[in-house]
Amino acid sequence: MKVEEIGTNAGKVWEALNDGSKKTTAEIKKVTKLTDKEIYAAIGWLAREGKINVEQKGASVAVNLI
User: Fold this and answer.
1) Is-contact 30 66, C-beta < 8 A?
2) Tens-place pLDDT, residues 17-41
3) Closest CA to 42 of 15, 66, 10, 17
4) Beta-carbon-side half-sphere exposure of residue 1 (alpha carbons within 13 Å)
5) What percentage of residues in the chain have a pLDDT greater than 90?
6) Looking at CB atoms within 10 Å, which of 2, 10, 26, 65 has the fewest?
7) Angstrom distance (rounded) from CA 64 to CA 25
8) 53 strand-pairing partners
9) Under CATH, to which class is 3-65 assigned?
10) Three-state SS for 20?
């Protein structure tokens, strides 16, 4: 996966979260049509930039914008 692709996917995840709600990775997957690998790379990108909050929610991960 190229860095540019991860950045583009981070933008898609950002847009999915832009309504202010907290979403699980499964919900993000439905909205963005990204694979699990692409979603987690995008989450890592956004987390590194300090733009999202990530928390464990059962067997899943919940994400929201900061």
Assistant:
1) no
2) 999 889 999 999 999 999 999 999 9
3) 10
4) 16
5) 76
6) 2
7) 11
8) 64
9) mainly alpha
10) coil
Residue 11: CB atoms within 10 Å: 14
User: Parallel, antiparallel, or unpaired for β 23-24 and 52-57?
Assistant: unpaired
Domain boundaries, the chain: 3-65
Q: Rounded to whole angstroms, how far apart are CA atoms 23 and 4?
A: 24
Amino acid at 46: L
8 close to 45: Cβ distance less than 8 angstroms: no
| CA angle at 33 for the pair 31 and 37, rounded to the nearest 5° | 115
Residue 66, amino acid: I
pLDDT at 56 over 90: no
Residue closest to 9 by CA, chosen among 44, 31, 51, 39:
39
Q: Which residues pair with 52 in a beta bridge?
A: 65
**What does the DSSP 8-state code read for residue 49?**
T
